[in-house]
Every structure is written in structure tokens, then in C-alpha cells.
Amino acid sequence: MKSELNDKFIANSPLFGGNASYVEAYYEQYLKDPESVEPSWRDYFKSLNGDGSSDIAHGPIRESFVDTQASAGQGARPRTGMSLQAAQKQAGVLRLINYYRVRGHQAADLDPLGLYQPPPVPDLDPAFHGLGKADMDTVFSTGSLFAPADEMPLRDIIDLCKRVYTGTIGAEYMYITDTRQKRWIQRRLEAGVDQGLLSDKDRYEVLRQLTAAEGIERYLHKKYVGQKRFSLEGADTMIPALDEMVRSAARHHVDEVVLGMAHRGRLNVLVNILGKSPQELFAEFEGEYDLDELDLSGDVKYHLGFSTDIEIEGERVHMVLAFNPSHLEAVNPVVQGSVKARQSRRDDGAGETVLPVLIHGDASFAGQGIVMETLQLSQAEGYATGGTVHFIVNNQLGFTMQNPITAPMGEVSRTSQYCTDIAKMLEAPVFHVNGDDPEAVVFVTRLAMDYRETFGKDVIIDMVCYRRHGHNEADEPAVTQPLMYQKVKETPTTRARYAKQLESAGVIDKNEAQRLFDAYRDGLDEGKNISRTTLGLVGNEHTVDWRRYTRDHWSHVVDTSVPVETLQRLSNQLHSLPEGFELHKRTQRIIDDRRKMAAGASRIDWGFAEHVAYASLLDDGFDVRLSGQDSGRGTFFHRHSVLYNQKNGDEFVPLAHVGRDNARFAVNDTLLSEAGVVGFEYGYATADPDTLTIWEAQFGDFVNGAQVIIDQFISSGQAKWGRLCGLVMFLPHGYEGQGPEHSSARLERFLQLCAERHMLVCVPSTPAQWFHLLRQQMVRDLRMPLVVLTPKSLLRHRLSTSTLEDLAEGHFQFVIDEPADIDADRIERVVFCSGKVYYDLYQAREERELDSVALVRIEQLYPFPADDYSAVLDRYKNANEVVWCQEEPENQGAWYQIKHRLQVPLEDRHQLIYATRPGAATTAVGYHKLHVKQQEAVIEAALTGGEALLDKGMSRDLSRGKKNATRKKK
């Protein structure tokens, strides 16, 4: 039946035989004037070419014509013109062209060492498509191939396809579903193989850049023997490639380029691309520091960042190299966040003014999960930066294990065929290129830059090269890769090869390459940079002066109050909905309650306090950016910063409509990522001190997934690199019997990282405290990370409320003591605590009418408010027992991190006791009854001593009269 239908279609279709020429002519008429052809034909032509643009002329018509004939089978016969055999041959040619586009990269000449021999690709054999030697001189239609002519001999078609797709460039892009992008790449590749040649001037510049790349490495190798520098040798062509990126950026009128990279080649990039002074670099090698003048702990030279302005292609471009530890790809989201902040300052939603460039290693690109997280953010709302240019230094080694360019699954340290396969989830094009063909590398760099500019998407350059030395210069790579390094020793440098190529082509004389090298070396001897001249930090209207954020001190109490009238005005704006906007009934009740709170008719809760804190900051001219996996609504159904119309699903963000005209509020519900998103928000905060940048964990323990970012950037960035950052982290924390995964934000880990007064760790216990803490973060002339252990059950606790006046007056309190009217002389025991456990203690004390126990909340655990703590002890002259109470197990929480601080001011009469859960390997128990029993024991021990509750075998010091004695109550 199907064959009959095909025969009927062929017999009656105008696409066949002698009508083909007529159809082509009619198509050309359509391209000139679509309205001049019949409507039915107009619709047909448009269906062939998507949007009906003039990009495609004869190709689709021919391919449709030939493919229809070829699929009809042997029994079909065209009416006139082309024979069935000729149609089948033509169809085979078009299939062959297509397979070169799809699989040509597998046969490309990519390995400069020649160790990798591409396996045969049957699809690229003409015989596979029914074509033989006898067909080589036959003229065929080139279809959609961007060829010099519409018809060419088969041998010329194959030669063109080989030069484009199996030379020193292997392009992967046919998985892209957007036809416009595919056709754009095809045009640039297929036409560019002949048209994209470099001028002699450009080729000379490439040689000059290669000379600089090799020159700095050889100079450092001789001058500083044995010192690590993580040489770029073997991947020298990265320097001409980066130079071309910067030039292309200037041509596209990009204002800033932000680079992120690990350590390999970093020193080379600093000098030859960013223009760092060689003298300054040499001083770092020689350790010329005045230790008495240092105010940082510092970092090794191949982790350091740099920023400067350069003038190139008639444009001034600000260049930034991000600081990065040895955690390889961890810098990826940091760069993206920094770029997003810079773009936001310019109101650049399309990402045209600031370019992110990420330089990767092949093994780390394939192996590090944060690569995938960052790629997934690339087109997400609130995170898109207009596309990133990724440059992979593919030296075919992961530390000591060889990773071939392509590999059968399971035979090397990765599963994917290429290290770049992760990028296919974005449908990002990948251009594999042989690093020993500098002109091909520069060609694909231009192509990548133009693709990013045109489509605003990520693009990957995979430069296949090698590592001339081991992992570092003292390493011996031949131990694990003997064959590879025999070949490396025999291989001339890229500069030497290219110099000979230019000499043979008559571009340079035989002595010019040596003159360039000598001139570069002489410049280094004089401490001059002759590869790149910088202007220094010139600055512009978007430049941030961070000096003002170092003037304040964490202990400085700032006025964060807001007049009641202002709070009510802001609240009215927040709770005024568009006409006809219908809320869910539960959300409507929350909004109605908030209106009452603003009117003073009821006490305020955490959701109200948070919203008016943001609104007041927006009213002061600050921006607010809140991100997290459920931050719009709030994991605990408490925030509702995004409202949804139940009639049509429309969204309304009240905070986006309050504050000054230029103030912006953004809330982003993120993908299920911690490391990637936290890194992004850290990067954002390091580039924009005037935005309250917040990341919220869905549950506090989810922050575990971002531990590398916390350790390597957030907690230590200021000490290592002098990088200020005001990032706020909301970590829901509290023991409600929800098991080990939803209880603890790992407070102890943050306190363990605390030193040098570089980070705030706070546990607010009331809505007013949260309000003032958030305002303090921006109002104070100080930018340091703020870790907030936020509540869960307290969000609706009847005792954890505040008044409107609490917000309108005062400031954030480091310590909250008992009310002033308490009889301090009756107090015999002072219990210090933080967070939710206070309310459990309070209710138990009231039930038992224990008027000899004072409950004191330490709201800021670091920097520890020692003066406030001492003042509390001085107030209770008759209290000899000082207790630290926490919900967490003994080996977790704050106890071991603040114990020494609690002991410092104690007198001989004092006895320091702690009430905790027993030490545990998990953060919390999984059985609710056991949780309740443990919680009751902690409260009992804190309020009354509870000696009977001490675990068997647990030691305790009950000695009295000894200063700072400690005993355990459980």
C-alpha cells in the first residue's frame, strides 16, 4: 500500500523529472518576492526554509526532490528527466555530505603528537552510499553545501568536505535543533575553509604571540629552576587564541572580559594577555615580601587574580582574571556570577557588554560536577550571561592518566567519547582543533566569538595539545606515560613549526623568528612587558570603589530602625494587588494577616519582617537578589514573594514594585544545585556591594553540596586574596524530629572556619532581629559574608513574634538578656543558648516557675560578642552556674567552637556546664519518639542540672572552686 502511494505521488508531483528546473526558477522568484507566487506554493517553499528567509536557495528544493525519489524504492519510475539510478546517486551524494557534517570530526587530524589514529568511519566512505570511482568525475548538485558552485564533480565535493570536516578542525554541531544556528555554522565552516584564511599581518601576529607564550616559559624555567609554575608548554597556541578573543571582544564593543581558569598556563596568561609586569611576577617567585606589612595570609602565585584596562582594536577593554584555588572548575560559577553583576550594573540583559571566558582542562571538564551545574545555569532566568566561551586545554592527560581525544566507552577515566560531551545537553557547538595548527585555532576562536555574539549561547573550543612537562615541572611524566613522552621529546614546539611554515610561505625571512624571540627575552631581562601594554586601572562609571566597605567594624552598632509610617507605607505597597488578581485562599489569609500586622492590630511574624526589610532596603536605593530552590514561595510556605493568580497563573512580585525607581528586586527559583548556585551568588556579591545578595538552602543541611565553595571562596577569599563579599546565606536549622537530613545546617563547620573576623554567623530568634540583621548587612560600611541559621517551626511559633515598634526602633542585638525588670539577685543559674531551643527552655521554665534561672540568647556566635557576654555575667552576681544549652549533639553545634570564649571571663565562683544531646555520628535521630526524649533531657539538664540523665560512662568534672571548671549535664 505504501509503495502504491509513493508511485502515485511521484507520478503526479511537480517536483520530478522535467519540472525540476521550473520549480527551481519558481523558487528563485519566491525568494525575490514571496507575494508573486501562488499561495499554495508560497506555503510549500516556506515549509522548506523555516522562516522563509533567503539563506537557502536551491538546496532544499534539490534535496526534497532527490530524497523523495530515493525513498520511493526500485519500483518507482520518474516521468521524465533524471533516471532512477541518477536520482539514487544524487541522493547518495547528499547523504555523504550530511555524514561529513555529522561524523567528520571522528576522522579529523586532531592530535599534534600523532599518537591517536582515528578509526575508520564507514559513513564517510563513498561506497557506503553507493558511489564509486566511476562517479568521481560526475557532476552532482551540492545541495545545501556552501560550495563555490551549485554543481561540482564528486571528487571536488568530497575534497571540500574533507578539508572542512576532517582536517585539523573537528566540528560537532549537528545535534543542534535550531536550523538557523546549524545553517549559520555550516556557512562559516564550509565557506570559511577558503575565505577565512589569515592575512600575512595576522599570521605574523600569531607568531609573535607564540613567541611570547614560549618565551616566558623558557625564561622562568631557567631563572627559577625547580619552582612550580604549571607551564603552558605544549599548549602554547592558547595565547594567540586568547589574544584573538580579546580582539574579537573589542570588535564587538565588549566593555569587560572576565576570565576564569585553573593554574596551568595562568602565569603565561597574566603576563602575555593581561599585561602583568614581569618584574611583579619575578618578585612573587623570589618571595620579596615585607612580612610585617602583610595584612593577608596570601596565596601561591598561580592562584592569584588580576585586573587591568587595555587598549586594543581601538577600544578600551577592562580585563579581569578571577582568583581561583586548586579546586579546578570551582571558579566557573564564580565567574558567571561576577559577570552577571557587572552586566546588571549596565542594565545589560542581553549580555553584550561583559564577556565570560572559562579555560578548562580536559579531565576536569569531564570530571567535575560543577561544570554541569554551571552549564545548566547558562540559559536560566536570573543566571544567563549571554553565552560563555569555553576554551579547553586538552593535553590528553588527567594528572598522570592518559585520556585520548576520543575513546571507547569504559576504557579510560571517563565514559563519554569526548571530554566535551557534557556540553551537548545545551546544544552548544563544539570545535575540536589541533593545537599545532595555530591558524585553525584562531579561525575557530573567531567563529566561536561570532557565534556567541549572534546567538547568545555557550560555545566550546577543545584545543587538543599535550603537556611538555609533568603535572608540574619537577614531575617525571615518563613514569606513567613512557610512549607519549618519547613522542613529546621528539616533537618541535609549536612556535618552531609555525615559524618554518611562515618562512616557507615567504611571510618572514629566516632570521625573523629568532629576532622576535631575542627581543622578548631582552624585554623580560629589563622587566618590561613587550607582549601586552596595559593602561592600569583606569576605571569608568561602572567601576566600584570597595575602599568604603573597609571603614567599619563588626562590633559597630548601626541604626537600622525605620519609622512606623514608612513601614506602613511600604506594607501597603507590598499588599496592593492588581485588579482582579485572585490569590489562593491560604495565601490570601497570609496577606490579610500581614495587612493587620502593618496596622498594629496583631504582632508581626517572620514573613512580614523579612518583606518589609527588603522593601526598606529597596526604598533606600539598594538592590535585593534572593536565590534558592524554593525561594519564591518559601520551602515552609512562609514567604510568598511571588504571588500567583489562581484564574490564569499570572505571576506578580510585589517587591519589584516598591522602593526607588532604580532599585531592583529579583527572586530566582533555581535548579537543584548547591555548589553551582552558591558559587554564582558568591561571584555576584564580590562584584556588587550595593546588592543584598542572598542564597537560601531549601534545608540547612543542603549546604553540604556547596562545601568547596564555602571553604575555598566564601570563608577564605578575603584572607587569601583581599576579596570582600557581602553574600548572605539562609540556612534553615532546628530540631523538630525530622531526622538527620532535615535538622542541622552544620553550624559547627562554619564556626570551625571562623577566624580573623572575616565572617558573621548569626542565629536570630525573633522577626525583629531578622529585620535588623538584614538591614545591618547593607547599611553598615562593611562587607563580609553573613551566615544566618534561619528558623523552620519558629516561623509560626506563637511566642516568636515582634511588634511594629520593634522594627521602628533599635538595631540588631548581639545578645538578648532577660527584661530589665527581672530580679537579678534571685538568679542562681544563667543558661546561654541560641535559636529555637530558647523557646523550649522558656516554656519549660514558666511551667515549673523557676525564677532562679535566667535565659540568655547569643544571637551572634561569630565574631563572638565577648563584651556583651561579660556584661550579662556581671549582672547576675549570685549566679554561680553558667550553662551552655544546645539542641545539637555534643560533638556538633556551637559548644566546642565557643567553649573557650565562654570560659574567658568566668571567675573562681563560676562553674561552666553544658547541656547537649549525646555525641553522635549523624546530626539527629530518625525516630520521633527518641527525638522527643532527647529534647526533654536537654531541657531538663539545662534548667535543673538533671544529673540522673547523664549517660553511663560519660565523664564529668564536678569540681567547684576551680576557675573555669567544666562539667557535663545531660
TrEMBL record:
Location of the Transketolase-like pyrimidine-binding domain: 604-797
Keyword Protein biosynthesis: no
Entry GO terms, CC: cytosol; oxoglutarate dehydrogenase complex
InterPro entries noted in UniProt: 2-oxogl_dehyd_N (IPR032106), 2oxoglutarate_DH_E1 (IPR011603), DH_E1 (IPR001017), KGD_C_sf (IPR042179), ODO-1/KGD_C (IPR031717), THDP-binding (IPR029061), Transketolase-like_Pyr-bd (IPR005475)
Enzyme Commission number: 1.2.4.2
Molecular-function annotations in GO: oxoglutarate dehydrogenase (succinyl-transferring) activity; thiamine pyrophosphate binding
Family annotation (Gene3D superfamilies): 3.40.50.12470, 3.40.50.970, Multifunctional 2-oxoglutarate metabolism enzyme, C-terminal domain (3.40.50.11610), TPP helical domain (1.10.287.1150)
Keyword Metal-binding: no
GO terms, biological process: tricarboxylic acid cycle
SUPFAM superfamilies membership: Thiamin diphosphate-binding fold (THDP-binding)
Cofactor(s) listed: thiamine diphosphate
Catalytic EC class: oxidoreductase
Swiss-Prot/TrEMBL keywords: Oxidoreductase, Thiamine pyrophosphate
Pfam families per record: 2-oxogl_dehyd_N, E1_dh, OxoGdeHyase_C, Transket_pyr
Task of the protein: E1 component of the 2-oxoglutarate dehydrogenase (OGDH) complex which catalyzes the decarboxylation of 2-oxoglutarate, the first step in the conversion of 2-oxoglutarate to succinyl-CoA and CO(2).
Family per record: Belongs to the alpha-ketoglutarate dehydrogenase family.
Protein's recorded name: 2-oxoglutarate dehydrogenase E1 component
Source lineage: Bacteria, Pseudomonadati, Pseudomonadota, Gammaproteobacteria, Salinisphaerales
